């Protein structure tokens, strides 16, 4: 509160105070004041009330209740010593400002106090004067106090509603921005998963066969490795173009939508894995126990990508043996299993960033499913990736 007292008044408040002071002095010198002094008080005290009232106008925003209290004393002195119109008008402004700029309690208490004061003043006037003119005094008192008080209430309510509406609009804009950022983050994560799942297998095959071509000094083996490298390069480029086409489709730049991979392409995935490994000790087997019925597109895409990433990891890490891909149903869910033999080599055939398993977990989590990856319990020689993807029975038909 002391800081508000010490801060300079606003320009509007200073202009109101100066105008009221000059107007009151002009009325005084012209002799335009009303009423007779009470108990022989000198009329010069009306000038004191005018100066004090003008000073309180400087506090109408910074300390409205203090200004109202001082102004009430000043207007009382003015009414007892001649009544300058300028003093009364400035007091009505103090009542208005106390309601508008005061604390929330002022909105409730000041209008009620003004109404009670008007009733009491009217009754006192009737008791003292005993004439109908006393009612006119009551009306005048109401115009000085009740009218500006309720005017301040109306304007303050309107201002508070405008502030609340602005705050609500800012909150809505903030929530919209947070939703936009979340959507952008989710889209980036989806694009990262798609990019990894589509390209990682081809790049792994290129790395494996390029290493073989460099380590084996046989023209025939090198030529065969280069052929596999070229094939995977072409396929990887085609997948990249498919992803670019998908992105353009979302922005309205593609002529036709790009095809989404489905479980019907698992045989091609296994053939690609056989070509990548190029080792007769490996075998890739697909056991499809889904039964009849189509699956929702998000489930098919997730299952396809899980098998694709699992085969890529098996090509890089597994030891020679069977790599089995199993599809089945379990209590209304699509179950995907990919098993391979645990390798005992010091390192993988191709480098990796470790993002494949994280991408699979994200895909399964988005569908509300479960994913586990690790050695089979009680075996210790088999690595299993198992994903359970919920499917609505009404959709599995």
TrEMBL record:
Residues 301-391 form the Histidine kinase/HSP90-like ATPase domain. It is an enzyme of class 2 (transferase). Its EC number is 2.7.13.3. Pfam families: HATPase_c, HisKA_3. The chain crosses the membrane at residues 12-34, 40-59, 66-90, 134-153. Residues 187-250 form the Signal transduction histidine kinase subgroup 3 dimerisation and phosphoacceptor domain. GO terms for molecular function: ATP binding; phosphorelay sensor kinase activity; protein dimerization activity. It catalyses: ATP + protein L-histidine = ADP + protein N-phospho-L-histidine. One of its GO terms (cellular component) is membrane. Keywords: ATP-binding, Kinase, Membrane, Nucleotide-binding, Phosphoprotein, Transferase, Transmembrane, Transmembrane helix, Two-component regulatory system. It comes from the Bacteria. This is histidine kinase. The lineage of its organism: Bacteria, Bacillati, Actinomycetota, Actinomycetes, Kitasatosporales.
